[in-house]
């Protein structure tokens, strides 16, 4: 084999040297290629003299006419110059058959003349004496040695190089002149019908098309084209060797030279031939619109040969040979077309060295960059892509060959399909690894052109070619600076980069040691079926976010690695398809539930919304990601962008944390109603809150604080709202039993309070309430915006018009809020400053009581005062909504109002009936002291504001409109509405209303403070006339009445008038008030819980009276007889004195 190669090289370089040595002045093109050629004319003339013997091609009759017509006159005296001129002529220029035959014989004689070796010895004597001294003379081995050394760039003699170059051009002009080539490839040429191998006058001397035909067949064989002929192994090696030896000078590839001659002048006119420079220049302009198709096709063929053997690229092989040896990338040098020779293997091997932090020369890295860009530009250079993606290209991507568009089209198809199991997707993934565009975005020409404007504006601070450019583009995805075309190209590329953690060079650099230590990852270009690339990243992020897992301590990542993992997760959250595990598990559910959700980030939102409907594997994947987001909400990139103003103003310290552990989300919720909060941010925050309601694990701080309590007290409960209810009920029950130890831990109780307050802000965060009232919201609160508890407040205001089920839910909510006012979001929001002013030291469950006590303070905010009044109105509708009253009157309510309780329905207001019942008993002075105190407060409050008396409102609505419209309209809390009804008592026609007013009058005589109009009018008189008399039980009212009757006392005119009005009202009330007879007493007894005891006592009393009557009968008879015997003038009974004037009894 070595001998064959030596013979091949020998003949190639013989013809090259002869051409260089014997050439004088050449045509303009060759002079441009080598401007220093003229100074070596002496050597060339010497070589010409040795071989030409005085005969000149230009003077031969066969070629005289063609030479004079085609070649410049100055070249006529140099046979090689004439030969070069004729064989490089334009395609349309024909020469005579006889001249063709003469040229063939001349070239054949040149390559077989014994004098050739002597010329080589003369011109290349330094190199031969040093490097080729051991070669045997007379058999052509010396020239073979020279060619090998030239191919390895080891020949330093200029004339020797020129000599070999010229002779190579002669040899490569016809495959029959390449020694051994015809023998190895003759059969394949005939089978492929690439051309004739016979000599004769009818065959032209330029046969480069034959080699080109064989090269195309070799390329097609690698692509496994249907019906493709398989070239024999010996011919394959010969073809690749010819391609390698022609890699220095594009003139040696005769097919490409003729196909691209005009394009070379157009694009690379100033590029000198040699060292593969013209090839590289043409490659760079391959997809220019003005590039001819025949040249583009020839360039593609050569690029495909380079992909099979990197040595076909002179510049790449020369620049990278030391690095290849250094890192053992070409161990099998005896197999030029083996695995080690493939361009992809070279790129992977050297890229692995770079990623390991090892040194690769700048020249080699530059060449690698060029060829990585070349592979990304033209999919056809990768046989695996052509073979595996043929169907996808024909179906989806035909006609998009230029500038990497076909590859991006294939990427888009794979991305839309969402799977990487297919052979095409695997071929694409392999190509992305080979080209490694993540390291330098410029490798991807389609991406570079699409994103140039974005890079110039958004990423101009980053050095050109830096890997952070791609990260910068991802950070600006879906922002105003991003353009649509760049967005598509970026996501198509990131889809594949996200599936192999090693393709993000920054991540790999920072995490390679952690991945090897914790996740058992392999080297950059190594894979393992036990730890595929996707699994490595999953392993990294689990260790980045979870310090404890499955009850055991987890090894921590380095800080730098954790930062990069966090960056990747933030970027992947923008598109569900950038998360390989999630997309693989959720393909079915994405198609079923989210096919119409095409906006950024909406697919994941859709999956989270349908979490309960997803398949188990998808539900687990979505749940894990959501759980991760709850720990680090910055993964929700769109949310963070929308909330940037709020974060900057209120949460910037938390946003700077590497992983916020749920603090940032809690801060955003707490500041959701600040002026910096825009609509987009509020929507995103609420959306995430709604997602958190699906599983308590989705609230990181709640999960960490309460996970042990949940397992112990609320097992098998997952939904957050159910867990909150379960734990809240446990806390409440423990509080009711004062001597019982709290079962819920302190840290859980604190976080539970946070969760309860957050849930009170939006009705949608209480799913049961929201679903029960959905129709009522549409009907009564359609224009009310969600959030800020506005919808809940709307339902409260329309409570009487709600459906029964919704009404019951709202009542239960109000009951909870009254027991714990801190859960009343609207009250806490509106009265936030007043709570700080008046109630900062008060227990949260007494906040409303504190606010009520300070309601009439001059410092009270009007809006807060209005909100307090609303809550008072609500409380007075049902004693169950007033926990203080309920506790104080727990014995009195069943004692006096059992009949009302018996007719009551659960979760429905009693419309103040129980409180009205207690008010009557208060007037009768029959309540316990604690209950009496609470009722007196209610009487005082309701006397000032009629709205706090639900029964009065219920019974007197029409009468108020008819008789007291002006007072009602003023809405001043001064008791004027009640006063109006009292004054107009005679005009009230509604019996229920009249009864309520009479009850008010009955209560007024119990204390002056329940009659605000009288209290205001008589304030000074009470101060001076009744200062020593304590309030309550009618004492101050009696004092004022005595003073009114006492002529020595002068009351204020207004007080005197009001007292006289009260006397008249009470007198009328006494006349019209229904008498409480036996029926009322019987009703009280029968409804009393102690009725058995009462009836038994009554029966005992009756029996005793009967017995006493029998006993007293005899005594009565004796007394009667004594009376008859008594004398007149001795009275039996002394009369009583009259009652003191001023006391008026109504009964």
Automatic annotation (TrEMBL):
Matches recorded under PROSITE patterns: GLG1_C_RICH
Endpoints of the signal sequence: 1-23
Membrane among keywords: yes
Chain positions of Cys-rich GLG repeats: 230-290, 359-418, 481-548, 556-615, 676-735, 743-803, 859-926, 988-1048
Membrane topology value: Single-pass type I membrane protein
Keywords: Glycoprotein, Membrane, Repeat, Sialic acid, Signal, Transmembrane, Transmembrane helix
Cellular compartments per GO CC: Golgi membrane
Source domain of life: Eukaryota
Single GO MF descriptor: fibroblast growth factor binding
Annotated localization: Golgi outpost; Membrane
A Pfam family per the record: Cys_rich_FGFR
InterPro entries: Cys-rich_GLG1_repeat, Cys-rich_GLG1_repeat_euk, GLG1
Membrane spanning stretches: 1093-1116
Protein name (Swiss-Prot/TrEMBL): Golgi apparatus protein 1
Protein's organism: Carassius auratus (Goldfish)
Chain's gene name: LOC113043756
